[in-house]
Amino acid sequence: MAKILNKKCLAPQVYEFLIEAPLIAHKCQPGQFIIIRVDENSERIPLTIGDFDREKGTITLVVQAVGNTTKHLCNDFAVGDDILDTVGPLGHPSEMRKFGTVVCIGGGIGVAPIYPIARAYKALGNKIISIIGGRNKDLVMWKEKMMAISDELIITTDDGSEGHKGFVTDPLKAMLEKGELPDLVLAIGPVIMMKNVAATTRPYNVHTTASLNSIMVDGTGMCGGCRVRIGDENKFACVDGPEFDAHLVDFVNLVQRQQMYKTQESAEYSCGGHCKCVED
After folding, report:
1. Per-residue pLDDT tens for 159-209?
2. Is the pTM of this model over 0.85?
């Protein structure tokens, strides 16, 4: 079991959980994820590790309530409650070395998993340019955390309520058009965002990676739900990734596969009037 030590509402239906998990915190690396089962009646779901503290033995998860299990976790679990099963770390860590200039792009809750990666790149001496965005200012997360580990932080919002009005690809495109070519671009967020990032960097032949954690189901390679086409090979996001060369990802097929469990994920959930949610 893993105890919830803190719970914070970051945005409507988006929560940050601080979890007691000393074994995972001791071993995990940036880019990895865990599998949780919140109680005996719940499905297993993969969640990317947003932060970790080896000394305190904690990990941080950012969860958006979109399906039965995530709604159950976000609405019914409070500080002091235990998550039944927590397994990890899983997946391959991000490639860690000194590239030079690294552009880290996070969309929506994708900012959380990109944070420990950007922090690690910064510690290795890379120049970090972070571009984070959301539909509006309330959905732009972890601004202070990203600012603390970035040489430059650019914020975009679809409605212009904060930072640049537009998409995360806009400042990236402007950078490339000026001839400022980074050594690596890393994108984590909605599939359509990562697809557009790849399309933006491809003409400039800038090495670009995308984390495909959003299509994982079982997280162990057994269900086949996260099969993706990478170049001329079939891969599984959970055991072969989650990060891949974004220029080789078949995003058309990826979007189709992402819709496979849409009905099940959007099934109605009711807390039955027994919600224990506490918003800090």
Report:
1. 989 999 999 999 999 999 999 999 999 999 999 999 999 999 999 999 999
2. yes
39-75 confidence digits (pLDDT tens): 988 888 889 999 999 999 999 999 998 888 889 999 9
Rounded Cα distance between 182 and 186, Å, is 10
What letter would DSSP give residue 72? H
Give 5-51 pLDDT, tens digit per residue. Answer: 999 999 888 999 999 999 999 999 999 999 999 998 888 888 999 99
Look at residues 34, 71, 91 and name the one whose alpha carbon lies nearest to residue 212. 91
With beta carbons less than 8 A apart as the criterion, state whether 114 and 104 touch: yes
Who's near 241: CB < 8 A, 6+ residues apart?
91, 92, 211, 212, 213, 228, 235
Residue with tokens 């849409």: 262
User: Helix 191-201 and helix 169-177: axis angle, to 10°?
Assistant: 10
What length is written for the chain?
280
CA dist list (Å): 250 to 18, 104, 224, 235: 35, 21, 16, 11
Give ∠ CA 113-226-71 in degrees, rounded to 5. Answer: 60
Rounded CA separation 15/150 (Å): 24
Q: What are 5's two structure tokens?
A: 């030590």
CA–CA distance, 219 with 35 (Å, rounded to integer) = 7
